[in-house]
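To illustrate the input format used throughout this study, we show a single complete record. The first block contains the structure-token representation of the backbone; no residue identities are included at this stage. The design step must infer an amino acid for every position from geometry alone.
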């Protein structure tokens, strides 16, 4: 998920296996141009631009699989997010952009993986959200207009949903909401269940689990998320990720956000937005 951070998005981070419509599947998972004018000399960090780094490890073990760079900023009064997914050596291979809409937990977003050309997203329109998916660079894109249900959650909006329901979760109450699965072009009910209070690297935190809330949910993977008590920032996500390995297999990962977001400058953000994506993490 994929914070999301900037979330990992619980993480933002959901499966797009090619399955029949009646099969359960793991829950998964264009910004406006920045003004180019800037003053001469070194760019100063801005409180309006925040950057946060994350690392994705194999869930069982310490092998570094990929990195995430999350950027949050405001443009034309709207909250934006940019996520670059990077090879272990730092080269970027995928990009996601998120733009807040009327409902903070249901933003528009666009995700593209340059390794095979997979693309998915949702954009607002008069008739609802247009959800689109392209299985590969050579595949024909598919799209469908989907009505946004009450309480509907889209991609990185999951973090906002957690904050909105934090009081209920801390009180031990489950929260069930419709979550958009772009690969299904539909919203499905997802149950967020509070777990134990923990200390994550010394930080007081709350562990949550997320699972499909349908009869077949018992065979769908359960995702585990850890949020800081003080500010409800995502500290760790564990589960099946949107990002696949080089063979096309979805990975069981543990994504950690060791440090809070810090101010960044406009030049750094502009460079991140213009970063060319590589087609492979191999040499």
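Output of the design step:
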């Amino acid at each position: 998920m994929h914070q999301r951070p900037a979330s990992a998005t619980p993480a933002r981070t959901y499966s797009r296996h090619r399955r029949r419509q009646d099969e359960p599947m793991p829950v998964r998972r264009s910004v406006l141009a920045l003004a180019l004018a800037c003053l001469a000399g070194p760019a100063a960090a801005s409180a309006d631009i925040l950057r946060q780094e994350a690392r994705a490890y194999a869930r069982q073990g310490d092998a570094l699989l990929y990195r995430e760079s999350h950027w949050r900023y405001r443009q034309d009064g709207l909250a934006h997010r940019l996520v670059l997914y990077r090879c272990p050596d730092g080269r970027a291979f995928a990009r996601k952009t998120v733009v807040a809409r009327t409902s903070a937990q249901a933003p528009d977003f666009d995700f593209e993986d340059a390794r095979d050309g997979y693309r998915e997203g949702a954009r607002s329109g008069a008739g609802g959200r247009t959800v689109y998916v392209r299985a590969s660079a050579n595949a024909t894109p598919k799209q469908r207009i989907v009505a946004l249900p009450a309480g509907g959650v889209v991609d990185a909006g999951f973090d906002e949903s957690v904050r909105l329901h934090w009081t209920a979760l801390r009180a031990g109450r489950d929260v069930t909401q419709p979550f958009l699965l772009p690969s299904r072009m539909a919203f499905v009910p997802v149950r967020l269940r509070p777990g134990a209070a923990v200390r994550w690297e010394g930080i007081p935190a709350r562990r949550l689990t997320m699972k499909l809330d349908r009869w077949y949910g018992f065979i769908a993977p359960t995702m585990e998320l850890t949020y800081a008590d003080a500010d409800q920032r995502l500290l760790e996500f564990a589960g099946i990720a949107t990002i696949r390995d080089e063979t096309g297999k979805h990975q069981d990962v543990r994504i950690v956000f060791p440090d809070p977001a810090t101010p960044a400058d406009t030049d750094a953000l502009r460079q991140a937005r213009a970063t060319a994506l590589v087609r492979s993490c191999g040499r």
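Structural context for interpreting the output: Residues 1-43 have pLDDT under 50 and may be disordered. The first strand starts at residue 46 and ends at 58.
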